[in-house]
Design goal:
497 residues, five-stranded mixed beta sheet
């Protein structure tokens, strides 16, 4: 009798929970789809989807998926419930949104500047900076991008940085091989941070670089978190990190201005000089806030992706000896064809690394460092037969495109050879985004990765402490132990390579 009573009570509780859940989700759906849009019939063609719970929407299910071993279960749940539609309405990061998962829809959202603009969450804007590329207008972005892209892209710029990158890569690998256990990812991030610091600020003390890199690590955990400014939450910690970063950069800007005031004829040599000299057609120069936000953005983007992709390319090559052997053979062939008098790599040699380029592209596809970018509808827009209301966010879900089996057969397999003769169609390969807001440092990132892999493949191997270490997916995919292991030299060190 007691067992039957307990069972009945349990069923009542479950039924009550299901009813409350249905009521709350229905209220949330009504509020954003009917009330906020005024019940206008033109919105009858909204994509299918789920607006989730009041206030938090689908954030909990998103976070649960990306903190599990199967982050793609989040999108899979939409596909299972609503079919292969490619667009799904949802409520995330504090806004009604539409997730787009097909090449056609992604291309449209990224390239149509008439209908869409950047739509990053409040947390990202506050942390990276409202005066950075993600927060400024189209015209301001166009001007600043043109100003800052040339020093990090193009043959002249890349050739200028090659020697410096080579030197610190050679030095780092030599140091790591005699250090013992290291966190491979952490050391790579320091390496790539040193490179981007050199480009923007020429040089800073090791103490300053360590302090900046440390704060960036904290900052990144809050960039795609909910904007909850309460102790213990990632966003709260990230805001504190940003304040420290701004204070450090302000000191650097002040010192540089003072130095230039005392020696106005000093040769201009880095991005900081360019930013300080820049003025628009009306003679207005960038103020400190604008310069600092550009620095915060570039120094963050300029080392995070390069460090992570370099680590994953190294791990994936070692996991597949046949690909490792082929990549190494290509590097050895480059050495064999090199004139005896030549010291170090040339840009021409980098461009001959055809197989290594495929390794990098395959790593970029499989890892998908930035799994999503944010846009916002500037007006009611139609994509693939659906309406996206003005003001709604558009979540361009790169991860779905890069792991689509119809585009890339066996998409979760690492296979550089899939790129043999493959010219990706528009919208199918988006590691650096697309359109006018495409990452301006993509060429520099590939150069860094290529130089590192060249020397690693020729002379070193990585011995991991834990080959089955779990992977974390937020803020970016990485082994939980930051790839703890040892770098071992496997052939005589080649100073002249």
């Amino acid at each position: 009798m007691d067992l039957k009573l307990n069972w009945n009570i349990l069923m009542v509780i479950l039924a009550g929970f299901v009813t409350i859940k249905w009521v709350l989700k229905s209220i949330n759906l009504w509020y954003y789809e009917k009330y906020k849009l005024g019940g206008d019939k033109k919105y009858s063609l909204l994509p299918p989807g789920d607006m989730g719970w009041p206030l938090i929407g689908n954030m909990w299910s998103f976070l649960l998926a990306f903190k599990s071993s199967n982050p793609d279960s989040f999108i899979s749940s939409f596909v299972t419930r609503f079919g292969q539609k490619g667009l799904y309405k949802t409520f995330m990061f504090g806004h009604p949104s539409v997730i787009v998962t097909t090449p056609e829809a992604c291309k449209r959202a990224l390239t149509d500047d008439e209908d869409f603009k950047p739509g990053w969450p409040r947390s990202t804007l506050e942390l990276i900076g409202r005066k950075s590329f993600i927060g400024i207008t189209y015209d301001e972005h166009k001007r600043l991008r043109k100003l800052t892209a040339s020093p990090v892209n193009g043959q002249a710029a890349l050739s200028m940085y090659m020697k410096y990158i080579e030197e610190i890569v050679i030095s780092a690998l030599e140091k790591w091989s005699s250090t013992g256990k290291i966190e491979f990812l952490s050391e790579l991030r320091k390496l790539t941070f040193k490179i981007i610091m050199y480009i923007f600020l020429s040089s800073e003390s090791e103490h300053v670089m360590d302090a900046l890199e440390r704060e960036y690590s904290i900052l990144n955990y809050g960039v795609r978190a909910m904007a909850i400014n309460i102790p213990g939450f990632a966003y709260y910690k990230a805001l504190k990190a940003r304040k420290k970063l701004v204070a450090i950069f302000q000191c650097i800007v002040d010192e540089r201005r003072e130095k230039r005031r005392k020696s106005p004829t000093t040769e201009k040599k880095d991005m900081m000089d360019i930013l300080l000299d820049e003025e628009d057609e009306n003679g207005r120069k960038l103020n400190d806030e604008e310069i600092i936000d550009v620095l915060v953005m570039y120094l963050n983007a300029g080392h995070e992706s390069s460090g992570h992709i370099t680590m994953w390319a190294t791990l994936l090559l070692q996991k597949h000896p046949e690909f490792f052997k082929r990549a190494k053979a290509e590097q050895e062939e480059i050495l064999m064809k090199r004139p005896p008098s030549q010291v170090g790599l040339t840009l021409k040699e980098i461009r001959k690394m055809e197989y290594l380029s495929k390794v990098i592209d395959e790593t970029l596809r499989l890892v998908t460092f930035s799994f999503v970018v944010f846009r916002e509808a500037k007006r009611d827009a139609r994509i693939c037969g659906y309406t996206i209301p003005k003001g709604w966010k558009v979540l361009v879900w790169f991860r779905s495109v890069h792991l689509d089996p119809e585009i890339y057969p066996s998409p979760k397999e690492f296979n550089p050879s899939r790129w043999d003769g493959l010219a990706p169609k528009a919208g199918t390969f988006l590691p650096f985004g697309g359109g006018s807001r495409m990452c301006p440092g993509n060429d520099l990132a590939k150069l860094e990765i290529s130089i590192f892999l060249h020397y690693f493949l020729l002379n070193y191997e990585l011995e991991r402490e834990n080959n089955v270490c779990p992977v974390m997916y937020l803020p970016h995919s990485r082994p939980k132990d930051n790839c703890l292991g040892r770098i071992r030299r496997v052939s005589p060190y080649r100073v002249n390579t």
